[in-house]
Amino acid sequence: MPKFNVRKTYEEVADYLREQIVSGTYVPGARLPSLRELGETLGVGQSTVREALSSLKTLGLITMKQGEGTFVTRHDPEEIISAFESMRPATRQEIMELLEVRKIIESGTARLAAERRTEEELSKIKEALTEMEQALSSGELGDQADWKFHYAVAAASHNQTLQTVMMSISEAVGRSLQTSRQELYRMKEVPKNLYKEHASIYEAIRERNGNRAETAMLYHLQGVEEKMLD
Fold this sequence. Notes:
The chain is mainly α. Helices cover 70% and strands 3% of the residues. It has helices at 10-22, 35-42, 46-58, 77-82, 92-116, 119-138, 143-156, 160-168, 170-184, 190-206, 210-229; strands at residues 62-65, 69-72. Keywords: DNA-binding, Transcription, Transcription regulation. One of its GO terms (molecular function) is DNA binding.
């Protein structure tokens, strides 16, 4: 395990533990080491570990049982984003900055997904797309299905680091999707076009066309960015 400088913030410890959970090092139901053990192993103070665990608890990744310890609860991407519903809306600046990051990361991720995906992983992407279509038909925002789609693409890349990066920005993505969709859905034809853009990404991945998948993802994210600037 890495050693952290005690002057570093608790976010680094939280990110490390979250990565361990998402990667399966700590599976659901597993008991995490004590505050003292984690502090000694990671080379940080117990107060830093305590703050890190508190942030993971907010995300719904762990639960703390008095007298028993801290346990991993879940790390399903769909369940995690459900916890974001009570959080504050994202600001326009946060949305735009996040889109810049996502354009860089997710266009390449889509290419890898097209080249490496399995049939099972393709089914997961299709499942999310179907949920988006159902949300569109019922007039719902479909933000959870949107997140599920993008995370499924990341999972199909077969790159654990990319999956960890997606999970690390999941809170920001969750708030951003909800806020941006609330605004974009006021525009005529936008909801239908957003679905079509996701369908194009899916089709490119289904056909194992890396170039088209990368272009379709970039086109989608750039389109959202441009609409948010209007």
